[in-house]
Each structure stands twice: as structure tokens, then as C-alpha cells.
Amino acid sequence: MRLTLILAVLCLGFASCEKNYVCECTGTDGAVKKSFEVNEWKKNMAKDKCVTYQNNINTSIALGYTCVIK
Length: 70
Known about the structure:
The chain is of the alpha+beta class. The protein has helices at 2-12, 46-56, and strands spanning 20-26, 32-39, 64-69. The chain has one domain (19-69). A three-stranded antiparallel beta sheet has the order 2-1-3, with helices on one face. It is elongated.
């Protein structure tokens, strides 16, 4: 337990411990409409970002999204 806590504290101090993701908003045709990078903490905001993009381009095409570790 103590070792896990020490490793967690060390990890917080280094950016290399944080995972980065490449997220893509895809149309119903499977084509990538928008691509962006986020860190692990913001990965759950990818859906909102795709919806905002969909609204900005004024399209009714439903955009899906995927995120993979970079």
C-alpha cells in the first residue's frame, strides 16, 4: 500500500505518466470530420466536443467519436 501511494505521488509529478489520446469525430459515412488530442482527464469531454463541432458546421449528420491512446 505504501509503495502504491509513493508511485502515485511520483506519477503526479511527471507528465509522462499521463496518457494522451487522439479523438476523432466521425460521420455516418465513416469519414473523420474532426481530430483532436486530449489528456486522460479530458477524454470524457470528447463527445461534447464532437456535438459542438456538429452544431458549428450546422449539420444534421450524427457524429460518432472514438478515442485511442496516442
